[in-house]
Amino acid sequence: MEIIIPIITAMAGLAIGTGSIFAYNKHKKNGGQNKADDLIRKAKHEASDIVLNAKKEATALTEKTQAEEDARRKEWKKTENRLIERETTLDSKIDQLQKKTDKLNKEEKELEELKNEIRNIRVKQHEKLEKIAALSKQEAREKLMKMTENDIKQDLVALVVKEQKEIKHEVDETAQAVLLTAMERMSSEVTADRTITALKLPDDDMKGRIIGKEGRNIQALQRATGVDIMVDDTPGMVVLSSFDPIRRQVARYALERLMKDGRINPASIEESVTKAEKEIEKEVVRAGEDAAREVGVVGIPREILHLLGELKFRTSYGQNVLLHSIEMAHMAGMIAEEIGVDKRVAKTATLLHDMGKAVTHKIEGKHAEIGAELAKKYGMPDAIVHAIAAHHDDIEPTTPEAIIVKIVDAISAARPGARNVSAENFAERMRDLENIATSFPGIDKAYAISAGREIRVIVEPKSIDDLSALKMARDIANKIEATMSYPGVIKVNVIRETRAVEYAK
Fold first, then answer.
1. Segment 481-500, tens digit of pLDDT
2. Cβ-Cβ contacts under 8 Å for 117 (sequence gap 6 or more)
3. For 378-494, where are the alpha helices, taking DSSP H only?
4. Does residue 297 sit in the same domain as residue 279?
5. How many C-beta atoms surround the C-beta of residue 464 within 10 A?
6. 360-381, pLDDT tens digit by residue?
7. Domain span holding position 468
8. How far is Cα 441 from Cα 287, in angstroms, rounded to an integer?
9. What is the rounded CA–CA span in Å between residue 351 and residue 329?
10. Count of structural domains within the chain
11. Domain closes at, from 233, 253, 285
12. Distance between CA atoms of 476 and 468, rounded to whole angstroms?
């Protein structure tokens, strides 16, 4: 029994152990299977999702492709419709063109037939005219042409006179309005510089000191300045004479400095002249800058401003050139503003138009040509260069600004008191006017009147007809413009008079 119990216990333990092992193994086997099942289920689910997404993407791609295909088909359809429409339109235009061509051909044929008919009528008329007038064809043609020419000439004269009057009236009104506006708004002082400068002395003893021992001081002063110093019996005054106003100014400044200092000798004279030259140089630069500033023009090179400043000491016909240029620049700006052209170009060109006069004693040539070359050299715009070159008709003015410069130059010169013209020059100009007029054939007499503002020309009525008189007036005016220099405007009045006298007995 005791043996059975341990055996039973051992068997039971064995059974329990075997069962435990079996149960453990079974449990282990069952756990792995579940995990595998989970993985399979998960894989199947993911595969299903992938397939679903792939189906969705395939569907979307298909729809997109289908939409693009539909759009292309619509565009192709539109293009096809346009081509069909254009083809239809082209066919229609071709038909219309063909119809027009046929119509033109028909009209051309009718026109040719009409021309032939007219030729036949003219031939018949000429034959009848020859029979009636007892004239040949050539004689009849000449007579007819002469009659027609006379009729046309009279009508043409009347038409030309009428048009000239209307145009002149309109142009005069417009020009007067513009010019009067500019002239009324501009007022400048009038100066009349000469070739001499009178210098007042504090006392007569100063004359002897200026002359110096054996004339050394005055000789040194004349050598240093290039100015003639005239000391005469006029009390308290010496006269500085030179055609160069800058040299006269240097001499005046130097003498004033010497008289103020009290030491007058060759050494102090040389020192004083040097200082005076430097002072004049500063004054020249300042004058040029002040002129440009007064006119309102900027951007002018310093070299040109220096030349402009030198004009302060230059005169033309007794008129200060710088003041003349400033006056002109103001008027040019006003006129340019009135007619709507480049105001800056007009003012700048006008201010610099006489720049060449500053160096005419150094460079040969006309001042307009020299001024244009200097402006071009220092980089001024072509429009300004052209206006400077054309202001005296050396070349044809082709821009509105160039014409404005020419106009205001004439206005400034013609203003009463602006210029100092001698009687000899006036008489010479009057003779030149009369000589120009009488140089044309068919002129009986010519008279320059109204101080040279008008030239009256009396023609021979048998040699010059009305139409020729009009042409002659224009030709005389053109020759005056080409050969003479004058201020303002000269009126050319051609007079043709025919008198018929008969006596009743």
1. 888 876 667 888 888 877 77
2. none
3. 382-390, 400-414, 423-438, 466-483
4. no
5. 21
6. 777 778 888 888 999 899 999 9
7. 423-495
8. 53
9. 5
10. 5
11. 285
12. 12
